[in-house]
Amino acid sequence: MSQASLSREQGLIDRLKSRFPEAIKDAKIDRARRVTVHFEKDHLQEIAIFMRDELGIDHVKGVAGVDFPTHKKIDVLYFAASYSKPEIHDIIVILMAELPRDNPTIATSVTIWPSAHFHERETFEMFGVRFEGHPDLRKLLTLDNWEGPPPMLKDIKFPEMGQR
Amino acid sequence: MTAEAAAPIMSITKGSDSSTLDVSVGPQHPGSGHCRILMRVDGDRIVSVDPDIGYVHRGCEKIAENRNYVSNIPHLERPNIADAIHLNWGYTLAVEELQGVVVPPRGRYIATIAAEMNRIASHLYGLAIMQGVFVGHTTVFMWAFGDRDLFLELAEMLTGARMTYSFLPPGGPRRDLPFGFVERLTKLVDYLERRLPEYERIYFRNPLMVSRCKGVGVLKREDAMRLGVAGPVLRASGVKYDVRKAEPYGAYDELDFEIPTFEEGDSYSRILMKLEEMKQSIRIIRQALEKMPKGPIARKAPLVAPEGEATGRVESSRGEIAYLVMGDNSDKPYRVKIMNGSFRNLIALPYLVRDVHVADLPVIYGSLDYWPVEADR
After folding, report:
1. DSSP code for A24
2. Is A163 domain-assigned?
């Protein structure tokens, strides 16, 4: 992959970095069409508004949580991309924030990207991440009588799945 | 988004009054699949709906963390057995990316053929159940199921299984094209091409079907983009977006095909999209058979994946399927995240089913081609 062909990805990174020199800790091109942006969790909404209005990144494909018990953190990943700008159709920007494991809280992105509605509900349920300002943060997938801790955390084991 | 725009997807258990009635549709499959739709009605008009999903949640992502890379394939394709090859392929692309494995050209062509056969079979399934039965047209149900079976038979010939193929482990497909397969597939796509105009006559131009679907559940272009819907639902609203073109995988960059789009965004165009996509699939299969390169079909892939993360994605028949796979130098993934079309299209339901007749619910729901198990994972 030559350098020249990554100019669109680099362009996105440059614009994000120059607009948010403080909030964006690190931004890199994973490979062609994939950009990972590590950001300070308090700045999610302003970054999302900038990405939607200025960069044309108008929807979220998914919101993923990743649990790291040894590092005492939960990563939240937003897979954001564009439908309205055909020239960056193929790029996925992965916004990544680190949350403390004992109190995982982050502002909601639903007010900026309504497409994140069910994804944030799922991450709330599976990882216990509270999205502040979400209009309807309820359980989604687990049974109504499930009262255990968030099931996707690494220290929750299900022996019937072969976990020990 | 304003407060009014957020309102339709808020819990309807809040703020009921005596003029409305809450009705639960499902989850025992009276037209909702394995999901429950809580519906608030005012007479014959639906005020709002609240999809209550998760009845077929299996914890696929959790299970995936405890199986090694290859044994993950059979269970990761279970969420959508009608479209198993795409659920398999998206995961495989992510793992191959992580391991740095490149599939030989012949393997990519065989995978493309298998995927397009599966897309046709899956669209025929959707046409039969979601759009045929829900709209009240039983003939297309019998026809589409009959024709779909021919594709399943050929899939069995190629992969050894009718529906859940596990055909694409990292490295390339498991088998080469069997003896006599090319002739049979050529005959079959010729047959389907002759058959599609008959579908048009009996179903797509049927006055009953047209009057029930035209102008019902209109998803505007801006809303489709804002809500992040995927696949045929998105393209029926006029957004020309298809992963096969945006980020070509398999052999799609070497094949010539169109992305059909419609401007209307109503249930009718979402259903008609199935027909147009099947025509393109026929084109793709013919070209792939013609251009089929010689050589090996697969390379050996390691059983472990290095530390890092990769996102692979494919265009399934219900929209884009993307997998995030995180490796940690072991034979099991640290995390697998499944992002699929059904889960993303779910958000369109509360937006579309607003101030419509109760009888329009199955039509709108059917036109979204929502697959509950795929969404619940």
Report:
1. E
2. no
What residues make up the domain containing A64?
4-156
**A164 falls within a domain:** no
Number of domains in chain B: 1
Q: What is the DSSP string of A54-114?
A: TS---EEEEEEEEEEGGGTEEEEEEEEE-SS-GGGTT-EEEEEEEEETTS-EEE-STTT-G
Q: Can you read off the two tokens belonging to residue A60?
A: 């979220």
**Token pair 């494909």: residue:** A61
pTM here is 0.88
Return the CATH number at A141.
3.30.460.80
Q: Tell me, yes or no, if A153 comes closer than 8 A to chain B by beta carbon.
A: no
**Percent of the residues in chain B that have a pLDDT greater than 90, as a whole number:** 38
User: Number of structural domains, chain A?
Assistant: 1
Identify which of A92, A135, A142 has the shortest CB distance to residue B57: A142
Looking at the domain assignment, is residue B139 inside a domain? yes
> Residue A32: closest CA among chain B residues belongs to which residue?
B247
Query: Each residue of B299-314: pLDDT tens digit?
Result: 888 888 888 889 999 9
pLDDT tens-place string over residues B153-212: 999 999 988 888 989 999 889 889 999 999 999 999 999 999 999 999 888 888 888 888
Distance CA B234, CA B223 (A): 10
CATH number, domain at B275? 1.10.645.10
- Round to whole Å and give the CA distance between A133 and A109: 9
User: What is the average pLDDT score of chain B?
Assistant: 87
Nearest by CB to residue B1, choosing from A33, A111, A162, is: A111
Report if residue A139 sits inside a domain.
yes
Instruction: Say what the ipTM of the complex is.
Output: 0.87
H-type helices in B162-306, by residue range?
181-199, 207-213, 221-227, 232-236, 243-246, 267-291
Q: Could you tell me which chain B residue has the CA closest to the CA of A125?
A: B54
Assigned token pair, B136? 């009240």
Which domain does B310 fall in, by range? 60-376
Residue B2 banded pLDDT, cuts 50, 70, 90: very low
Residue B258's SS3 state is coil
The answer to the question of residue A34 being in a domain is yes
pLDDT in tens, B81-132: 888 999 999 999 999 989 889 999 999 999 999 999 999 999 999 888 877 7
Helix, strand or coil, per DSSP, at residue B155: helix
- Bridge partners of B23? B39
Alpha-carbon distances of B36 from A120, B126, B134, B167, B331, rounded to whole Å: 20, 19, 16, 33, 38
